[in-house]
Amino acid sequence: MNRHSLRAGSLRLPTPCPGKTSLPHPAGNDLPNEESEALGRDLIRDVVERTRAELPGSRLVRARLEDGASASVLANSAGVTGRTAVRLATIQLEFVVERNATRGSCSLYRAAGNLTDLDAAALAAEVADRLTLATATPMSFLPSGEIAVAPSLATSLLALLGPLFRGRDGWERLQRLSPGDSLGPPDLQVLDDGALEEGWIRTPVDDEGVPTRAVALIRGGEPAEPLLSWEDDGWSGFSASGCRRRSGWRSPPEISHSHFYIDRGPDPADSIRSGIRHGCYLLDRAPDGRSHVTFPHSDNGGEASFEIDATGFVVEHDRILGAIPRARLRGSIRQLFRGIRAVGDDLRFLPVPGAVGSPTLLLTGLQLDPVV
User: Fold this and answer.
1) pLDDT tens digits for 297-321?
2) Is-cis flag, bond preceding 353, omega within 30?
3) Where are the domains of the chain?
4) Between the CA of residue 320 and those of 229, 261, 356, what are the distances in Å?
5) In angstroms, rounded to a whole number, what is the distance separating the alpha carbons of residues 223 and 359?
6) Which of 167, 245, 268, 334 has a CA positioned 20 to 30 A from the CA of residue 301?
7) CA angle, 272 then 273 then 279, to 5°
8) What's the burial of 352, exposed, middle or buried (CB within 10 Å: 0-12/13-18/19+)?
9) Strand, helix or coil at 369?
10) CA distance 67 to 63
11) CATH, domain 20-135, list 3.50.50.60, 3.30.230.70, 3.10.20.600, 3.30.2290.10
12) Whose CA is closest to 126, among 200, 49, 47?
């Protein structure tokens, strides 16, 4: 229960709807062990070959691939039975390379709903970018202007902003960011969908048996609706959705995102990166770097802001000028949304936690400072 459900007389249980709801069991997608292992080996071999083709001398040090499924049944005394099934494939890769008398290494961890959904070309491109970063010459200065943010970093940014979209308090914070104005460009769509067809944690009901659905948090650059659990159903005219989940069997269900993502836009990601005349392309969060968001109380003013440490490149028309070992991207959350100039078509989900997704974004109006 949250603080709203503790008010006297306000606790209201969901209306019982006897019956069953289920998703197809993933066993129908199971492959024989020998065939699954062969597909896994072929995937890793393909990633290695593609990475070597782009970066000669690169070498795979370690690879770990897991593919499996689980099923669960949720039943309550009101006669509701929910049967859910989850399938997940994960891959972890570690590569090294020597270039320009410099030895560099990188690791990559990715997940998908099925082994066949892991794309060797996309994995190899991410590995090559990170190995290039590990061996490139660090830049002594950072240009101001356009900043392209890869899906890996964009998902970390979106995860930071999760409290903006959850519950009554989140909706009030979001409203304060756009009093009478558009929050972002028309191409900006932010959603939470517990039953996303291609999602790897899709389920028809949450951990309290409430049906899940797609919730448009931002539609056309405008705040659309908050993510509300059943006890706030009907608040300000908004409908609840199944969004309470347990972090473990000992923990009570709490309001939480499922497939939380910025939807793909109309702009090819390659054209976003190559279109930067002189700016930065940020790949990912810096290891052990700072990641923080501030939401001031409404009664003391101030601006909601964020900062996150990132790594990437200084680029000029798709040409790498040098590496950014660590820089701090920061600014107001209002400017983060309003400064979105392009939304890419390369939506990717990462487990950070749950399933958070984003395509490549082109940002302006933010500050990027080197971190020594």
Assistant:
1) 765 557 899 999 999 999 998 899 9
2) yes
3) 20-135, 147-370
4) 46, 29, 28
5) 19
6) 167
7) 110
8) middle
9) strand
10) 13
11) 3.30.2290.10
12) 47
| Token code pair at residue 298 | 């409404």
Structure tokens that stand for 131 in this block: 């190995």
List Cβ neighbours of 180 (8 Å cut-off, separation of 6 or more). Answer: none
Q: What is the pLDDT of residue 6?
A: 39
CA distance 143 to 146: 9
- Global confidence as pTM: 0.85
The length of the chain in residues reads 372
Run of H or E residues at 251: none
State pLDDT tens for residues 230-243.
Answer: 999 999 999 999 99
Q: Which of 40, 151, 25, 33 is nearest to 89 (CA)?
A: 40
Question: 182 CB contacts (<8 Å, ≥6 apart)?
Answer: 221, 222, 338
Q: Which residues of 39-58 are buried (b: 16+ CB within 10 A; e: fewer)?
A: bbeebbebbbebbbeebeeb
Q: What are phi and psi of 12, to 5 degrees?
A: -140, 120
The neighbour count for residue 33, using CB atoms within 10 Å, is 9
CA distance 110 to 88: 11
Cα 156 → chain centroid: 6
Question: What pLDDT is stored for residue 300 in this prediction?
Answer: 58
DSSP conformation class of 344: B
- Which tokens belong to 95? 């590569």
- What gap in Å lies between CA 102 and CA 134, rounded to an integer? 8
Distance of CA 371 to the CA centre of its chain: 24
Burial class for 246, CB neighbours closer than 10 Å (0-12, 13-18, 19+): middle
**Could you give phi then psi for residue 266, rounded to 5 degrees?**
-90, -10
* The pair of three-digit structure tokens given for residue 318, joined into one six-digit string: 């798709």
Helices (H), the chain: 33-54, 120-135, 151-160, 167-177, 269-274, 333-338
Write out the H or E segment, with its range, that includes residue 89: strand 80-99
Question: Would you state the structure tokens that stand for residue 314, as one six-digit string?
Answer: 């200084």
